[in-house]
């Protein structure tokens, strides 16, 4: 908590070059619904969602033993007045090896065998996700709390 709060303070102090933050969730079989849903989501430096509605809730750690962290979203070279193309995306670690740095948990899960998603989400929720009935972001309610399979079916299966 202290490390993330200190990082946010540094990011805010450098808002001339930093546009916001990106939630990075660990890409493995122990990641919680709370962090899966936030994986790759962007927020302003004030913690406002950018292009989604999942609350920041102070940022990581989101729960006990949370392994998520924040990464900066820097302004583009052109936003900084530099006529230069952006650098290519780097890489990051996952349970199954190196992956592109911008890979979300949703994209990570799509690359895994069907049984992996069943184990992570539970068979019923994994089926809803595979069919496209729900997204990983919809695993949470408006406050950022996980929904049960029964709640998801009531909300999204009409």
Key phrases:
158 residues, alpha+beta, four-stranded antiparallel beta sheet, two-stranded antiparallel ribbon
Helix/strand-derived category reads: alpha+beta
Strand order of the largest sheet: 3-2-1-4
Radius of gyration: 17 Å
Name the beta content range. 5-15%
Spell the H/E element sequence.
HEHEEEEEHHHH
Give the total of beta strands.
6
Number of helices: 6
Low-pLDDT residue intervals, each spanning 5 or more residues: none
Quaternary form = single chain
Shape: globular
| Mean pLDDT over all positions | 93
Largest sheet entry: 4 strands, antiparallel
Q: Please estimate the helix content.
A: 25-40%
- Span between termini: 40 Å
Q: What is the compact description of this entry?
A:
The protein is α+β, with helices and mostly antiparallel strands and 158 residues long. The protein has helices spanning 2-13, 33-38, 105-110, 114-121, 123-131, 149-156; strands at residues 18-24, 42-43, 49-50, 69-74, 91-92, 99-100.
């Amino acid at each position: 908590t202290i490390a993330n709060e200190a990082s946010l303070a540094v990011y805010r102090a450098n808002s001339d070059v930093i546009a916001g933050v990106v939630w990075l969730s660990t890409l493995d079989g122990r990641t919680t619904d709370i962090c899966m849903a936030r994986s790759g989501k962007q927020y302003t430096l004030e913690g406002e969602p950018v292009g989604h509605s999942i609350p920041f809730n102070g940022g990581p750690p989101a729960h006990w033993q949370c392994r998520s962290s924040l990464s900066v979203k820097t302004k583009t070279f052109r936003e900084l007045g530099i006529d230069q193309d952006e650098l290519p995306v780097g890489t990051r670690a996952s349970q199954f090896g190196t992956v592109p740095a911008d890979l979300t948990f949703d994209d990570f899960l799509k690359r895994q065998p069907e049984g992996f998603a069943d184990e992570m989400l539970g068979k019923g929720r994994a089926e809803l996700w595979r069919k496209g009935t729900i997204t990983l972001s919809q695993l949470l309610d408006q406050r950022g709390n996980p929904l049960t399979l029964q709640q998801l079916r009531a909300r999204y299966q009409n």
